[in-house]
Amino acid sequence: MVKIDKIVLPEFPLLLAPMEDVSDPPFRAVCKDNGADLMYTEFISSEGLIRDAIKSRQKLDIFDYERPIGIQIFGGDEESLALAAKIVDVTNPDMLDINFGCPVKKVAGKGAGAGVLKDIDLMVRLTDAVVKATRLPVTVKTRLGWDENSKNIEEVAERLQDVGIKALSIHGRTRSQMYKGEADWTLIANVKNNPRIHMPIFGNGDIDSPQKALEYKNRYGVDGIMIGRAAIGYPWIFREIKHYVKTGELMDPPTVDERVEVCRKHLRKSLEWKGPIVGINEMRRHYANYLKGLPGIKEYRNRLVVLKTMEEVEAVLDEVQENYAGYVIERNPIVLENYHQHCPL
Ligand SMILES: Cc1cc2nc3c(=O)[nH]c(=O)nc-3n(C[C@H](O)[C@H](O)[C@H](O)COP(=O)(O)O)c2cc1C
């Protein structure tokens, strides 16, 4: 088993990565159902929280069935991060995660934020301020370093542990790489193998299949794996990895019924949380993913994306279930998209 402070996770836990505009409560609900052991919210601006911006506040919504869950914040100065940490405290998540190095204009424009990865002293000061401000266990998510010449993650890990963080998730790329090339897990393994490090180290970057997850588990010895893009539209990745790690065998891919049921749940949660209009609109980008691989599905998708009520969508989903009953969808490799316009952490 793996422990983050007092939180007990199963052996080799699978984490859902924080993803802006993706890892909201409806998406988290379906990932949780399918085996995510620890989840994080989308990143939340500390400045936004302090200003009481509606969007930032809304991202604080967490539900008991999601536990253990971490709320992720970012920001560029000690005072606002510490204040934000106190606001997060009140919402009572299981942990507080700090995202380092996201080049959001608002933050980077003030000379902080993106620069944090270049300035370990600043990173340590910011972390220290958060640890001191909150009663929650603090975790950090970051990259290997700023660029090819400053891969400082080994020093970063030691120093952040020294100021009290309880776990570290590392995306095996530098900030300059964005999503280019392949994630390099060798430095993640170095951090894990450092005898001074006693907190859990979670590897992140490019896991897109059960086979790769097991291979990386064995090769790099990390305590667990964090999965981002592969879960988008395919929350079954968690249960498939778990099954493969346990048995060495691939699970059958989800049936049509399972796909439609997960889509329905995502839809229901989306409406509950976002309201009937935004809920329906934002669900539109998910149908293609959930129904991928069914022949002729384009026609259904085209109908789904213009519907305006849950009842209408449910009726089309009923049709899909009826018309494709028993159809076996082939297992297709998951394609990891580049999201350069988003936070590259
Ligand atoms: C759409 C999108 C949004 C992201 N938003 C965040 C975020 O809010 N906070 C964060 O720490 N990382 C964010 N990331 C980075 C992911 O958490 C993860 O580190 C990265 O995608 C690599 O993992 P993967 O190869 O499994 O996708 C985001 C990634 C994507 C694709």
From TrEMBL:
Residues 15-322 form the DUS-like FMN-binding domain. Catalyzes the synthesis of 5,6-dihydrouridine (D), a modified base found in the D-loop of most tRNAs, via the reduction of the C5-C6 double bond in target uridines. InterPro entries: Aldolase_TIM (IPR013785), DUS-like_FMN-bd (IPR035587), DUS_fam (IPR001269), DusB-like (IPR004652), tRNA-dHydroUridine_Synthase_C (IPR024036), tRNA_hU_synthase_CS (IPR018517). FMN binds at Q72, K141, H171, G228, R229. The keyword tRNA processing applies. The active site is at C102. Its EC number is 1.3.1.-. This is tRNA-dihydrouridine synthase. It comes from Hydrobacter penzbergensis. Its cofactor is FMN.
